């Protein structure tokens, strides 16, 4: 009898210890980053892994699925919504119908050149324009951080030394607004899937690609388009968001949520540093490789921004939102414009 009682007590003790051990196991967050670790968004992803683990004392860890190993970029919004993954990079370019408000930035040609001003814009915009946050939250997720890639560069098979040289050239951009901007400058806009851009340049299907500076070099588009035209005052205009499934987020205690938020504050600082150094790093490599490099002038940028067709594109965005039933579309647009202009002014100080 005594032995039986001891065995029962031992079993209860082991069961209790097993429960403690189980409770002590870290929570794992699955995260889809459809880029590569060496890219700007890859650097951001690594920082997220490190800082969340650090700020939660290892109690929360991030498992990253790189590239399209789990989800394609165009599946990220639904993947987080349905809980297939806990977190993902959501690109509004893939969701013009579901995230039209968060795609508004692409209608503006000029944007911040510095990481600090850019991240300030994306950090305050959700509070100043709550409709942007609400649009994301409709899909059972909340944005943890928003960011963008490097400003614009053109890789061309033909010489380009100014925006005027766009005229008559077949040029690719990422979305309808970028294509419209190219058309405003006299180019022939051509829609080509991103993964086909290298071949399209190589075969002459297009003459040039108009996209972010880091992707031009990271995807080796400058190998087949060695005439490189730097457009640093012209931003990417895409606000990428890292979102988390709302059910996942709600399972964390308030204390854990605060620690994760603190982790993202540090992630933001690390991203700003990477953003501000990568432009020159890429430029140095392109110079080493002997590519032809030209720079846009501020006078050209000022003329480009004020082109009537650029204004028409912005009006189109407003009218389309109004047609969808959004009565305050113009107000939303103007609030974004005001905040963007404030960010641009920050850089002048």
Task: Quickly describe the structure.
By secondary structure, the chain is α/β, with parallel strands linked by helices.
Account of the protein in words:
The chain starts with a helix and ends with a helix. The protein has two domains: 166 residues, D-Maltodextrin-Binding Protein, domain 2 (3-Layer(aba) Sandwich), CATH 3.40.190; 143 residues, D-Maltodextrin-Binding Protein, domain 2 (3-Layer(aba) Sandwich). It is globular and about 60 Å long. With 349 residues, the chain is an alpha/beta fold. The N terminus is likely disordered. The strands form two sheets. It has a six-stranded mixed β-sheet with strand order 7-6-8-5-9-11. The protein is built from 14 helices and eleven strands.
Strand-helix topology:
Blueprint: H1 2-24, E1 27-33, H2 40-55, E2 60-66, H3 76-81, E3 87-90, H4 115-128, H5 130-137, E4 141-147, E5 152-156, E6 170-172, H6 176-184, E7 188-190, H7 197-203, E8 208-212, H8 213-218, H9 221-224, E9 227-231, E10 240-245, H10 246-250, H11 254-288, E11 292-295, H12 298-305, H13 308-323, H14 329-348
Parallel strand pairs: 1-2, 1-3, 6-7, 6-8, 9-11
Antiparallel strand pairs: 3-10, 4-10, 5-8, 5-9
Helix pairs in contact: 2-11, 4-5, 4-14, 6-13
């Amino acid at each position: 009898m005594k032995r039986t009682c001891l065995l029962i007590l031992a079993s209860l003790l082991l069961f209790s210890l097993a429960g403690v051990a189980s409770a002590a196991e870290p929570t794992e967050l699955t995260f889809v980053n459809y880029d590569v670790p060496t890219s700007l968004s890859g650097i951001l992803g690594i920082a997220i892994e490190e800082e969340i683990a650090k700020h939660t004392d290892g109690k929360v860890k991030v498992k990253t699925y790189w590239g399209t190993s789990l989800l394609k970029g165009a599946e990220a919004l639904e993947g987080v919504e349905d809980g297939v993954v806990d977190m993902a990079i959501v690109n509004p370019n893939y969701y013009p119908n579901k995230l039209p408000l968060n795609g508004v930035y692409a209608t503006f040609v000029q944007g911040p050149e510095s990481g600090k001003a850019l991240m300030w814009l994306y950090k305050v915009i959700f509070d100043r324009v709550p409709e942007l946050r609400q649009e994301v939250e409709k899909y059972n997720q909340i944005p943890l951080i928003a960011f963008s890639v490097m400003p614009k560069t053109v890789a061309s098979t033909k010489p380009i030394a100014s925006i005027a040289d766009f005229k008559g050239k077949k040029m690719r951009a990422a979305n309808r607004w970028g294509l419209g901007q190219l058309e405003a400058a006299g180019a022939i806009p051509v829609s080509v899937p991103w993964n086909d851009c290298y071949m399209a340049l190589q075969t002459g299907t297009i003459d040039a690609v108009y996209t972010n500076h880091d992707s031009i070099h990271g995807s080796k588009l400058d190998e087949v388009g060695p005439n490189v035209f730097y457009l640093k005052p012209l931003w990417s205009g895409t606000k990428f968001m890292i979102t988390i499934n709302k059910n996942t987020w709600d399972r964390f205690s308030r204390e854990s949520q605060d620690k994760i938020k603190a982790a993202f504050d540090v992630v933001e600082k690390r991203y700003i540093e990477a953003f501000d150094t990568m432009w020159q790093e890429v430029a140095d490599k392109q110079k080493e490789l002997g590519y032809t490099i030209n720079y846009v002038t501020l006078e050209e940028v000022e003329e480009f921004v004020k082109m009537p067709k650029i204004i028409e594109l912005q009006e189109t965005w407003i009218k389309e939102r109004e047609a969808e039933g959004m009565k305050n579309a113009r107000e939303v647009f103007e609030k974004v414009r005001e905040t963007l202009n404030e960010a641009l002014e920050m850089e002048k100080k």
